[in-house]
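Cell division protein ZapA structure dump, as promised
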Amino acid sequence: MAEQSLQETLEIVVLGRRFRVACPRGHEQSLKEAARDLDDRLKTLRNQSELGNREQLLTMAALNLTHELRLAEARSREYADAMDSKIKTLQQTIEQALIHQAKE
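structure tokens r here:
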């Protein structure tokens, strides 16, 4: 019995060029949306800047996306740290309440 492929091949369009890309099964819609988002970003960047060739556009878009990702990761770490601190405070409060209750 042949094992079915865990990947699909999708066709996406970025800046008018068609690409065939492998995609894990079940993630097709997400990849299509990512391709549309990238295409929209590239078109906006092209319209707002004097970048002429695709390589420059793609490089600037990659830098912008990487910067956004790093900001999101930093926010996520800050949120996780804040939640850890709140959980520790809550644990200490509960422990103190239990100790106080045990003494009564």
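Residues 7-79 form one domain.
lmk if u need the other ones
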